[in-house]
Design brief:
By secondary structure, the protein is an alpha+beta fold. It has one domain (2-134): Nuclear Transport Factor 2, Chain: A (Roll). It has three helices and six strands, in the order ααββαββββ. The chain has a six-stranded mixed beta sheet. The longest helix is centred in the first third of the chain and has 22 residues, at 2-23. The N and C termini lie far apart (59 Å). The mean pLDDT is 91.
């Protein structure tokens, strides 16, 4: 039963990340990652610690309207005080770019997590299968 609690707690960390980004609550987002976390977002960049990574998240969302980051299909494996998780990302972002006003992002998160004094946190995140799909066209006169 204890492993089930760990799986739920890990899913909560991943979902809390999405809620933090959508709410632009960068302190909440920070609680999801270890201070020395590694994040690899492919062509968008790589970071070797939490602070510059969270600052980048803030920067790329600063010119974006409301967002909805939906994270699902969690596959979590716990091994003592470490775990791995793979999750699907399906996000909508309100943007003003060319003739489009909604950006649809689809990708997968591959996370390594550790249990520490703050509970479960992501120590390593890799983004893969990254697709940007522009959706709805603006209907501005």
């Amino acid at each position: 039963m204890e492993q089930w609690y760990d799986v739920v707690a890990i899913r909560d960390v991943i979902d809390r990340y999405a809620a933090g980004v959508d709410g632009r609550d960068w302190d909440l987002v920070s609680t999801c990652f270890t201070a020395d976390c590694h994040a690899d977002y492919g062509r968008s960049g790589q970071w070797a610690s939490r602070q510059p990574f969270v600052e980048w998240l803030d920067e790329i969302h600063s010119g974006v309207g409301p967002t909805m980051h939906r994270i699902s299909n969690h596959q979590v494996k716990v091994d003592g005080d470490t775990a791995t998780a793979t999750s699907y990302l399906d996000a909508l972002l309100q943007v003003e770019h060319a003739e489009y006003d909604l950006l649809h992002v689809v990708a997968r998160y591959h996370d390594q997590l550790v249990r520490g004094p703050q509970g479960w946190q992501i120590s390593d995140r890799r983004l893969s299968d990254f697709l940007w799909r522009r959706q709805h066209r603006s209907h501005h006169p």
